[in-house]
Amino acid sequence: EAGVTQSPTHLIKTRGQQATLRCSPISGHTSVYWYQQALGLGLQFLLWYDEGEERNRGNFPPRFSGRQFPNYSSELNVNALELEDSALYLCASSLGLAASSYEQYFGPGTRLTVT
Amino acid sequence: ILNVEQSPQSLHVQEGDSTNFTCSFPSSNFYALHWYRWETAKSPEALFVMTLNGDEKKKGRISATLNTKEGYSYLYIKGSQPEDSATYLCALYNQGGKLIFGQGTELSVKP
């Protein structure tokens, strides 16, 4: 069974640009979560999508947004990039609301560098 | 607000040593406690999901306990091997799909 996949592995952008990160969940999973790990910090919750709807977001500015597609894959968009957005972005998936599952399975992450 | 503390921050042991780390939390207002193992450049790997006070889980040489009344969980590794070297993360599952992570314990096992 294929795990959670993310693309690209690395992304280099300039301050002020937009970045788009992609995630494909495990087959059968309907929930996708995004987390950020900035340098020296722990993993911070960003966004949760289930069945195409945004269900919850963490304490991040509106520049961070995303969407979930009908095939349950997801995009994370970061607009007006700032230097402090440089971080590892992890995506996770789970069986979602209908299954009341607590387990989240993570992808390998996208390393975003803003110069 | 849930806060998750992990200790120690890093640990260096010799192959064959047994070791344990702590995850502490001030409140039992969560649905589940997760332990993950995270090797550099790989995906965090789920080790255990614990839901009940007194819960105890085991997978090979690794085991974990949960004490919600006193606000801690222990992760034990028996007979550490070099391949156990990784960062071990503890996370609480609260409402809203959110995992609240500790900073992790970085384990290094020397042959």
Question: Which descriptors would you attach to this protein?
Answer:
heterodimer; A: mainly beta; B: five-stranded antiparallel sheet; 54% strand; globular
What is the strand and helix layout of this fold?
The complex is a heterodimer of chains A (115) and B (111).
Chain A: E1 5-7, E2 10-13, E3 19-24, E4 31-38, E5 44-50, E6 53-57, E7 64-68, E8 74-78, E9 87-94, E10 105-106, E11 110-114
Parallel strand pairs in A: 2-11
Antiparallel strand pairs in A: 1-3, 3-8, 4-5, 4-9, 5-6, 7-8, 9-10, 9-11
Chain B: E1 5-7, E2 10-14, E3 19-24, E4 32-38, E5 45-50, E6 56-59, E7 62-67, E8 72-77, E9 86-93, E10 99-101, E11 105-110
Parallel strand pairs in B: 2-11
Antiparallel strand pairs in B: 1-3, 3-8, 4-5, 4-9, 6-7, 7-8, 9-10, 9-11
Report on this model:
- The complex is a heterodimer of chains A (115) and B (111).
- Chain A has 115 residues and is mainly β.
- Chain A contains no helices and 11 strands.
- In chain A, the strands form 2 sheets. In chain A, strands 2, 4, 5, 6, 9, 10 and 11 form a 7-stranded mixed sheet that branches. Chain A has a 4-stranded antiparallel sheet with strand order 1-3-8-7, with no helix packed on it.
- In chain A, a hairpin with a 5-residue loop joins strand 4 and strand 5 (44-50).
- With 111 residues, chain B is mainly β.
- Chain B has strands at residues 5-7, 10-14, 19-24, 32-38, 45-50, 56-59, 62-67, 72-77, 86-93, 99-101, 105-110.
- In chain B, the strands form 2 sheets. In chain B, strands 2, 4, 5, 9, 10 and 11 form a 6-stranded mixed sheet that branches.
- In chain B, a hairpin with a 6-residue loop joins strand 4 and strand 5.
- Chain B is globular, with a radius of gyration of 13 Å.
- At the A-B interface, strand 4, strand 5 and strand 10 of A face strand 4, strand 5, strand 9 and strand 10 of B.
